[in-house]
Amino acid sequence: MAHAAFNDLGSETDDVSVMEQAILLASQPSSRHAVSDIVQRGLKRACARNAIHVLQYVLEHGPDVEKLIAKDILINDEPTKPSQEVLEILVAHGWDINSRGDSWPLLWFVVEYPDLVEWCLDHGAKVDVPDDLSRGSSPPPTILGLAASSGSVETFELLRRRGAPLDRRTLHLAVEKATLLASRGTSQPYTDRMAMVRHLIDVVKLDVNAIEHRVGDQCSTPLCYLARRPNSDSHRELINFLLDRGADPEMDCGTEGGIDWPRPIDCAESCGNLEFLHAVQEWRGRQQGDGSSESI
């Protein structure tokens, strides 16, 4: 029972009595666990599992709320939407909504939830990328980059109005996610990504041929994401839309870092992506007006 108390801390069932027992056991002279450690662990687990009663009980025992970072709130066996009630309790007890440790602030983790994005912004969430963050050779994603990949158009525009900077790979990220979801056809996630791609090109006016090189990645333009991945008929909508908006399958992607970056068409050929090659061929045939096909 003692082992269970120290591991679960009542967060699984929101059972305060288990947390009480864990603190009692930790306070014994023979215990290997410090009460402060149990309380701090209980704080993290209660937040991650939305255990409101345990959270309120733990906060009465003086945990260091300032040590809590956004990642702690989201670690769970089955990731779920964070509880706004939990967040409100934490903020009321002095938690900094922009705290992040070695990870991202809360706003970055909740971009797919419009209500939580708005809540975070209303409670002082910053929209700029922390200056000291980097991920190897790749620039850290802006909140708009993540919104392009996982958020709604409305969320994207809300963040823009609040001054969020554009990611150099904003359109790339949206196309990449749409490519991954295209096999699901008319599923809502794919429909949402297509809406985002359309919005970024037709409304935000992002360059459909924007080049962004990343070491270890073949992709340079948004179209390259489709060129290098196995395609099916379900990808035609996305391919045709990009081509209709001026995406160039023979775009010269230049040389950078000693690398001759391949054109989208070269990516498709090297990957054996016949579906992509056929889609481009058919699109070119339609542009000729007689439905004929030309060789690529």
Automatic annotation (TrEMBL):
Keywords: ANK repeat, Repeat
Database matches in Gene3D superfamilies: Ankyrin repeat-containing domain (1.25.40.20)
InterPro entries with a match to the protein in the record: Ankyrin_rpt, Ankyrin_rpt-contain_sf, Multifunctional_regulatory
Record keyword GTP-binding present: no
UniProt protein name: Ankyrin repeat protein
Organism from which the protein derives: Pseudocercospora fijiensis (strain CIRAD86) (Black leaf streak disease fungus)
